[in-house]
Write the structure tokens for this entry.
Amino acid sequence: MVVEVIVREDNTQLDQALGQPAVTVDGKNLQMVQGSDGNWYAFFANTDKAKQADQAALSGLPGQSVDFGVFCSGSTPSTVLGMDVSRTDGVAIPDSAGLSGTTQGTAGFNSCSGIPTAPSNQNNVVRNIPSLNTNSKVPVGQTGINQNVWPVIQLFTFSDNVRVEYDRSTGSQSVDLNYSDIPNVSLSLDRTGYPAGADVFATIHDAELSIDPTSQNSWTFNVGPNSATFYQAFSVSGKSASGSGLVNLLPYLSTLGFKDNGKLSMDTSDVVNLKTNSVQTSSSLNGVYNKLVTFIETGPHTGIFQSSYGSVSTIGILPNAPRSHSGSITYNLQSSSIVSGTSTTSLTVGNNQNQFGPGQRETITLTDNNQNINSNMIDQLDVFRSSAKIPTLKIGNPITLSSASNVQFYGNAGSLTVPSSVFDSNSLRLIIDTRTQSMTDFQKITLNLGISTQSLKDLLVDPSQSNSKGTNWVNYDLRSFQKQLGISSFSSTTMTLYFGSIGSSPVTIVTPGMIVTGNGLVQISDSAITSIESMPSGLPVFLEINFNTSGTFSNPTDTQPIVFDLFSFGASNNKQINNAIYRAELQETSPNSGVFSGTIEYAVINQLNQFDPNLIKSLSTFGDNIKFLVNTELTDSNAIHFSVLGTQSSAPVTVTSQNNLPTHTGVVTLDSNNYRIGSDVTITINDPDLATDSNSIVTYTSVNDPNSPALDTVGDNSGNILLEVWIKGFRFHQCTINGATTGGLASTGFTLTETGPGTGIFKGVFKMPSWICNQDGTGLMSPVGGTVQAWYHDFRDQYGRSVVIGSIVSPTTKTSTTSPSPYIPSAMPPKITKYTQINDQSGRPLLESPHVGQTIVFNSMFSNTNYQNSQKISYIVQIKDSNNKIVFLKWVDDYLVNYSTSESIQWIPTSSGTYTAEIYVWNGMDSLVPLVDQNQYAIKVVQ
């Protein structure tokens, strides 16, 4: 071990002549020189051990192992070295250049002569040398030392104790060194059990390994046949000495003062995996030493050595290590077991609750020490990391790469077939294995998707078909190619499907410029869907991904997971479609915690956004903040299953968090019992299903398109209605009288705006007008004396039904302190019984599909046998088209007196298509309480 002595004084001038500090080693003068930082430096070591170390280094190349350089005796004139070394046994200097009389190894010291010239520097035990003060106004280092002999290691003979003493004007300061056996030599591991693929962090506490006090020392041990100990085979900084010049120090350890320390052994068994990192860049030395483990000092002269650098250890667990098997590691006769094992996996969403609401971000918590691969780092469960097991949510039946095969790479020199597999049956990533392959130039890959054209057609929504509307998407992740195979850009990437064979019947689903990053979600055009629908159903389907840029691989150290999914959202043949898969890339909460966290949220479709691609684009299918789509209530047997491959009771299992996602019944309220002309009318809708983003405030606007059936409602130009306002019993609408237009709801600028991100509470305000258009728009009338009604079209209530919910303010002559109450359908025992028949205009039952323009009559008979008093009823018929849009709504009010009565409503369809007729019976339109269950009837209208 070399000892560095540093004197820090208040007087640190570089341009003024200073006397060197008076420092002694066991009473013998230690020559100090000034560095460029103003501090004073010296190095010393034990004479005999320095010679023994240098002798060991002689069997290798100069400047490697524990080479001290060359020696000069203490009788060397000060004119040679530029310093007086007469009180030393001798000195070690970097090189003999320009000198005669130098010795090496255990040979006796000679007085050196000559003029030192620039050295080649054989010294390998003081590598991070303090620079000298070379100010022109003072001698070099304040003492006149020859720069070519720096660093000088002054050698002394000492045995058990060494006193280093500094005499200064204010008194002396001393440090006592104990030169004997090194105490507290120990070996420790970072944990008692390790999952497959984990890093093993071993730590050695041994000050004797800290040879160079200025640098991080490294020691490399061969733990297989041909046991060996190497000093500085691999260097943190500066040169590495791997090669023929290295010296195995194992035979020399005892002469260097080591006892049982300085040598490491391991039983790797079928558990331990010896690896490389950024310091130990090779797994072999000279082709002879092939089981290497390198330990790096944590800092200069700490005496603490770790098997890792940059949080990557040279010791690990094999990816396929059997559970509960063990290897061992031994240093200084202390042995520790390296045990492979598994721990119990758990997965929860939220605070162990079984349901959560739309627009609300909930925490995902995965406890899985099996994925705590590196105890020094925060582990990431990345999709592109092959060993990661990814928590996954699948809704419906998206197409994935679960059945893919025959992966081929194409380059200028031809094609290459590589193995592939799906090891994680939960996250369904295809693992491409190029580890034993080499290809200097490739531009594209192809693979067999393992599906038929009919399977593809069954997934996709074809908007060209009647009763079908929606969007189709490619969900992809190619980041492993970006990180391992040199694909630096995706801006020109295309994806093409072939039918029957590669190159046959191409349909391009991703064109250049559609993707720019390594993963994402992109929409497939309707024209591509039309082309796919034209293909014969029995053909196999192939995929080509053409990067249109060059990648390369040469025996990568890891495999390449990729994702290619096909999603569909919307409606097909009046059936709701929702096929997608979401993969959560969770992050460990802290190093070595084994607890991984992220968030999850969802958006529920409504009549305004159910076919909107912008809603789909807002989803997050990868990452630690997942956002998914819900198009109907998902409860009980249909509840979502968020799952991950894990372990319980030491056995591999799929661990699942099941969560109910009910839809909610909305509530609409008016803020007052009566309104005066010019007063604000505030409408509030409370429906969590309308909240589509936990980060953004959602706004729904009123329709101002005269050609839209939804004019003067909160809705869209296609005729879908979210909210309508009625005054005096009909919709508040615009009209033109004598060339002058009087506005309706849209002219007020009415919007429904969420009160905060994810609240699901929406407010809108308009001023009560002085005049409104009458019902048929032929004149104006005053709103005074009428009612104000707010009708909310709830796309999915708590029972998954589409219902209309209202709030009514009736005129009153008194001032009321109570607020109006919302009226919400709720499940109630039937008070009456109902029988319905659908007839034509002549009263005959409708047995065939009606034609456009034909009158359809909905007749219902009501019975009231259990009640003696009269029962108020509202008989309601609502017609929806194939896109779930309301095209007809009418009701009649009546009283059911005594035994029975009947009601009828007529509808004349104006266009062909498939419709759904919904029949409700409520306890009056001012209460909206259901008296019987809703009935639905499918009606197909033809030309």
Remarks:
- The chain has a mean pLDDT of 91.
- Residues 302 and 734 are 84 Å apart (CA to CA).
- The radius of gyration is 42 Å.
